[in-house]
Amino acid sequence: xxxxxxxxxxxxxxxxxxxxxxxxxxxxxxxxxxxxxxxxxxxxxxxxxxxxxxxxxxxxxxxxxxxxxxxxxxxxxxxxxxxxxxxxxxxxxxxxxxxxxxxxxxxxxxxxxxxxxxxxxxxxxxxxxxxxxxxxxxxxxxxxxxxxxxxxxxxxxxxxxxxxxxxxxxxxxxxxxxxxxxxxxxxxxxxxxxxxxxxxxxxxxxxxxxxxxxxxxxxxxxxxxxxxxxxxxxxxxxxxxxxxxxxxxxxxxxxxxxxxxxxxxxxxxxxxxxxxxxxxxxxxxxxx
Length: 288
Fold this sequence. Notes:
Elements: H1 8-18, H2 23-44, H3 49-66, E1 81-84, H4 90-99, H5 140-154, E2 160-165, H6 172-183, E3 189-195, E4 198-199, E5 202-203, H7 204-207, H8 213-219, E6 223-228, H9 232-238, E7 248-253, H10 276-285
Parallel strand pairs: 1-2, 2-3, 3-7, 6-7
Antiparallel strand pairs: 4-5
């Protein structure tokens, strides 16, 4: 295993695209990421493809147009922080990071391979662009609250964004963190819920009802924005800074398996691997 380093040529290309990217450009980038995810899961024989595809547009919008980060200097002190708390969807994150030049696209071929830096959950000591190790659900958001509080204490202006799965909200640690964020008026913090309504084995409603979810976040002291998580205009608007001096909660309504007809809104694709025939169908449907 070797530590990954920036692909400077790709990073420069990403910087040029980012300067003029629009909804069409984000859509093209998302298609590339989704195609990479399908290929990665197929090659590895492992992965969480349904959640990867539901969160892709969120990740692409953040890295393609919102986050103040530099792939060639990923540890810059004043960088924005991004945490994928639903760390089992590392495939989509890796494909997005590679598209931005954090490391070579060729590394995606090693996804889940023995000793690969790109294992099933993100590791900050191996992958540039990963702020903290995630996988155990309910851990990423508390870390994000700590990042946002640290910025406040240090007088820095960076913002912190955390993406959580909706099933993950069944973990009480998230709500403890939410109380802390509201207590300190952390308006530099944005919590994003990938609201695809499915988790491993069942719907979120059948497992543990979350609604009325917007009211719950509001009751915990957050500025709440409910959007279509596949609409780039709505995503860009939702990721703007707080207007109320409070932390922001974005509930992004998404479709598990987005973009592949036989996977969309199907619980069995939480953790499943497509057959060779299904891979070809998926890649045909995921055209730029």
